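Ticket #4471: structure export looks truncated?
Reporter: QA, pipeline team
Priority: medium

Steps to reproduce: submit the single chain below to the structure queue and open the exported record.
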Amino acid sequence: MRRIILSVVSVVLAVGVLGPLSSMQSGAAAAPAKAAADLFPARLALPDGWRPEGIAIGEGTHFFVGSLANGAILRGDVVTGQSSVFVPGTAGTAATGLELDQRHRLWVATAGGGGGVVYNAQTGARLASFRFAAAGVPTFVNDAVVTRDAVFFTDSQQPVLYVVPLGPGGQIPDQAAVRTLPLAGGAATVGGFNNGIEATPDGRLIVGQSNTGKLYEVDPVTGNSREIDLGGASVINADGLIRRGHTLYVVQNRLNQVAVVQFDGRFTSGTVVRVITDPALDVPATAALFGPFLYAVNARFTTPPTPTTSYAAIQLRA
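Actual output as written to the record:
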């Protein structure tokens, strides 16, 4: 049954992706794209009081959302909209950026906890945990990206990246292998608030700074950085980053929008080609791609959190 369901989903998503292209050729092709949007919930309700920040969507139709309240992880389905607690929370912990790798592992940044955790994305079992920042050092481990050789984490309070090197076959290392990569250049700007992180196909890193509105290319070996030329455009309040091909989606949290940046062939410069917004957005922190859609998590940072505060992920047309 699952194979049949996934096959149907794949067909519908293909129709959704091709719809806009076909509509340029024939006005009659817009209806199938709308039908694809109608199949999936426009709003993924999250538990009251959840305080979401990061979201990830992997193979199939599962999505994962972390909690700032207690570090719990929610797993849900983008078809049914239903979800349940996948990893129970622990008082005094938090989960910010989430990243799924190709080995069915979920990497989680732990915010003020100063570290990272990796879970089995199929069972929820904790596979490893790491401490990055030294005790007493101001820290906010914010986001993560997986490359072929390592997992990189940003720290919004320190001009560094944390590196978890992967062994043969993606083997998870022990704590002793973890290293701190000092940043140089604009990405080391004091008060810049390094936030979201992504990678180019050849392994270079892209880091977004919330307070400066700039994107930086970072060398994963040396930590040297250079500002990516956006033609004068700003991505102020940059939060989560998500890349597909040469397109980078930059969530601008307090602006309630997502900037769409189209890169050149070598990822040396980019152009903000459009901005995605929706009245349902309420300070989105991160987003995940699923077929022709983005699902942006409403962190609602301007709303005082209570146990009854409602939260959701909002479907946007990518």
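Status: closed, not a bug. The export was complete when the record was re-opened. Leaving a note from the reviewer for reference: The first helix runs from residue 2 to 25.
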